[in-house]
Amino acid sequence: MAIQVKNCMEDFVIDLVKQVIKSYPDICTCDQCINDIVTWSLNHLPARYVNTNIGDAYTRLDIYKQEHYTDIIKIVVQAVEVVSKNPHHTKKDKQE
């Protein structure tokens, strides 16, 4: 029994984080901080699980609807602000 379930929101949020952080040139973009931003965002958004490619396509179309897209951007921006104020590393750790 092969179970293949995917949260479509993951790829969508990862792509959106890459776009949003371009507007924040002063924040840390190390792997730890980017992963924290993605994780924080996903923990504050509803999961959108699918089990087929067709389901994935329909879900992505739904996500791109203006109201959902705007809500997701707001969450990602909040995540950037939260993580940039409270990174899980010190400046010294980042330099090493």
Structural description of this entry:
The chain has 96 residues and is mainly alpha-helical. The protein has a domain at 27-87. It is built from 5 helices and 2 strands; from the N terminus they run βααβααα. A two-stranded antiparallel ribbon has the order 1-2. Helix 1 packs across helix 2 (31-43), helix 1 packs across helix 4 (66-85) and helix 2 crosses helix 4. The N and C termini lie far apart (45 Å).
Write the layout of secondary structure elements.
Blueprint: E1 6-7, H1 8-20, H2 31-43, E2 49-50, H3 53-63, H4 66-85, H5 91-95
Antiparallel strand pairs: 1-2
Helix pairs in contact: 1-2, 1-4, 2-4
Précis, in short:
With 96 residues, this protein is mostly helical.
